[in-house]
Amino acid sequence: MIKIGFSESETITIYKITQAVLLIGNFTFQSVDNAKEYNKISSTDILKDVCDLLEVDMKEFEYRIVSKTTIVGKDVSVSKLDIKFCQNE
User: Fold this and answer.
1) Of 13, 33, 41, 83, which has the most beta carbons under 10 Å away?
2) Contact indicator for 42, 66 with CB cutoff of 8 Å
3) Which CATH class is domain 2-86?
4) % of the chain exceeding 90 in pLDDT
């Protein structure tokens, strides 16, 4: 990667992002029956690895994966994603 102009730091970042994206494909989800709670990522070990690679908060990342935020003008709406959508079925 250095030959094409990326620094060592940039190359490491690219590898971390690529690894995180590949790991996200291994997520498994758990349905939550309570209407007030969001579905959960049941593969917490993989979730932790992804969050460590991306250097993001685990709870916040999980919330963003299992919910959808819609912004229309000044109105913000957050909704729970169906478990089938999370699993991409």
Assistant:
1) 41
2) no
3) mainly alpha
4) 52
